[in-house]
Each structure stands twice: as structure tokens, then as C-alpha cells.
Amino acid sequence: MSQFPDDFRPQFTKLFSDPQTYQKAHPVTYHIVKGMNNRMVANNVPMSKEHYETASASILKGDTVCKFVIEENTHVMQSTGSGPVYNAGKMVHTVISKTK
Question: Which helix (H) or strand (E) is 9 found in, with range?
Fold first, then answer.
């Protein structure tokens, strides 16, 4: 159970246990995002409802990694967290924000 009352990270994590998610998702995106999500869980990084909805829709549409990152950019920029993977991701999203 998350320590954050409005944390949708558990729902996003559950998405990856559904076999239909793998069937619908781009295989590279699925594995990269699943791995990154596992690091977010390990570091207790919460996920907003809006981020969850956007990220889930992108995964289920079969978006490539690049499209996924662009789709979730606004939500990541509004998020807070810690850990090496979170910090690296935040740097990538900061660069994307400056080039839009």
C-alpha cells in the first residue's frame, strides 16, 4: 500500500501483470517502462491519476518508447521523487520540455 493517498502507482504496476497489456503494448516500450516503474516503486515515487491515465493509454495504444516519453512529459515534469532512475528520467524530460 502506498504512503500517498492519491498514488496511482499500484494501479500502473498492476497493469503489467495483465497478459493483454503485453499483447497491446510495443514490446520494447513494455519492458523499458515496466523496469523503470519497478524502480519507481522501490523508491516510493508516487504517480498522479493524470499521469497514470496518460501512461496507461500510451502503453495500451502500443506507442513506441519515444512517443510514450513525449506523452508523459508534462506529468513527469510536475512530479516529485528521488532515486537514480527517477533523476535520470527527470533530466531527459527537462531536455524535452526545453525543445517543445
Answer: helix 9-15
Whole-number Å distance between alpha carbons of 83 and 23: 30
pTM of the prediction? 0.90
Phi first, then psi: what are they for 16, rounded to 5°?
Answer: -75, -10
Of 39, 34, 45, 38, nearest to 8 by C-alpha is 45
Classified as helix, coil or strand, 33 is helix
Q: What is the pLDDT of residues 7-56, one digit of tens each?
A: 999 999 999 999 999 999 999 999 999 999 999 999 999 999 999 999 99
For 39-95, the three-class secondary structure string (H helix, E strand, C coil) is HHHHCCCCCCHHHHHHHHHHHHHCCCHHHHHHHHHHHHHCCCCCCHHHHHHHHHHHH
CA dist 33 and 15 (Å) reads 11
